[in-house]
Amino acid sequence: SGLPYVLDLKPPIKWLSSQETNLNQSFPFTDLNSETPDQFVVRTYPQFLWLPESIMPLNLSSRINLGRCFILSLTARASANKYHIKLPEILDNNGGAGEIEETMMWFALSQVKSNVEDQAKCEWTRSNSSENGAHSSHLIETPIWMNNDWRLRWIRRMGQHKAQIQILLYFLILSLPGPQPSHPESPEMSSIKCRKRPQKKIAPVATP
User: Fold this and answer.
1) String of b and e for 146-166 (b: at least 16 CB within 10 Å)?
2) What is the pTM of this model?
3) Where is this region: Disordered (predicted)?
4) For 4-8, what is the mean pLDDT?
């Protein structure tokens, strides 16, 4: 590519095949037939934001509602405030206001939690020592998002993903055509006919 900047559309965010198979059973949004266009935009955005690239690739979005892109765009300050202040508070309180994006976030976290639990159970099965069993129990009982190191890595990764999608949104908004110029209506022809100025008659000149 001869372009000076290239945006990577395949970030390393992937789930297990078993997690992808269980999406239809645990997906939080079910009543999709009655949603409005605004609700479709607001729901689709968190899906691309929180779900892995293997499930929601960025080039999958073929339905573009250009007029509603502005409700999703954030400033750099608002995005940083979301990931450095609001998101840690939601994780600490294990709750939130129940908004669409928060629901999608908890859905994504529940899949990550299931993955950790499965790994812990496999470790417990392979090992007969009580020490490994206690370690596995600790992994199962403690939510993964309460681990500070894991949380920092996860928030940083999701913040980068957010920045990528916001860049795409701004590029899309910048590529939108401007407002169509209003063409002035052709003035109607006047029904009043112009009167011709009477021409003066030139008197003939007498010849000698």
Assistant:
1) eeeeebeebbeebbebbebbb
2) 0.46
3) 182-208
4) 60
